[in-house]
Write a structure and sequence with these properties.
Shape: elongated
Low-confidence stretches: 16-25
Largest sheet: 5 strands, mixed
Number of strands: 10
Strand content: 15-25%
Structural class: alpha/beta
Distance between the termini: 70 Å
Number of helices: 10
Order of helices and strands: HEHEHEHEEEHHEHEHEEHH
Radius of gyration: 23 Å
Helix content: 40-55%
Mean pLDDT: 92
Oligomer: single chain
Length: 254
């Protein structure tokens, strides 16, 4: 075999090695982040910024009601990070040994509001004839719905309006029902109400003391094959970049 042939073979082998390494490092890690529906806009933007900073990594996002996501994880569904709109779901996963406890932290808070295209000055207005349909998230799986029920009970309104209530699968569905005027009012997080740019929408804040404190905890799921990247993402949520995004979407920083 002459020198020219040897050189050609070496070049081919070098190209194969380079292509193999390039392909294997195209995404050094790919993680799935399961997050509460109310985080959809903020986390979509945060994930883009994360990928800009760590171009070798890929973030896949799975949004839903916190309770449904919790059940998915308990049933063995793949997830590397879980961010909930309530501490209860993380507490349940922690008790079952399904999260890495040292990675758990509260990264944001929120508040609760009533939204309607009718004039509404007080929560008592929901009992009036003009409010025939009220929507809240299903309290069994949707934290916003659980907080809403607590607030209605606090104001001694639940029994007065329970026959008007239509339960939704997540907080964004509550928002959609109101925006499409399929119902007369809904109870959502402040951050969800801020996504509606219609000045005709009435927004009435509810007293923070009327319900459990609204906290957003997150943690890395135990057994993830990409623990390093999962931890990197949870750390990134504390960065100035992510904090600014959360604040812009109306979340309260801890």
């Amino acid at each position: 075999m002459d020198d020219h042939t040897n050189h050609a073979l070496c070049m081919v082998l070098l190209i194969v090695v380079v292509l193999t390494v390039t392909a294997s490092n195209l995404w050094a890690a790919q993680i799935l982040v399961s997050a509460a529906m109310s985080l959809k806009d903020a986390f979509t933007e945060i994930a883009r910024d994360f990928e800009k900073k760590y171009p070798q990594d890929k973030i896949l996002l799975n949004f839903g009601s916190s309770g449904q996501l919790q059940k998915q994880i308990e049933q063995g569904a793949q997830a590397d990070v879980f961010a909930s709109a309530s501490v209860n779901e993380l507490n349940s996963l922690e008790k079952k040994g399904l999260i890495i406890n040292t990675t758990r932290w509260t990264f944001a808070r929120n508040s609760l509001v009533i939204i309607s295209y009718h004039k509404i000055k007080a929560i008592d207005d929901l009992a009036q004839d003009g409010f025939e349909k009220l929507t809240i998230g299903d309290p069994g799986t949707v934290p916003a719905g659980k907080y809403a029920q607590e607030a209605l009970e606090h104001y001694k309104m639940y029994d007065k309006v329970k026959n008007k209530i239509i339960f939704a699968e997540n907080v964004r569905q509550v928002l959609d029902y109101v925006v499409r005027k399929e119902v007369d009012a809904g109870i959502v997080f402040t951050t969800d109400a801020l996504t509606v740019k219609d000045p005709a929408l009435t927004v009435l804040a509810l007293d923070a003391k009327s319900h459990e404190k609204i906290e957003y905890p997150m943690a890395v799921i135990k057994g993830t094959k990409e623990e390093g990247t999962a931890r990197l993402f949870t750390d990134f949520i504390a960065s100035e970049t992510a904090s600014a995004i959360l604040k812009r979407y109306g979340f309260i920083l801890p």
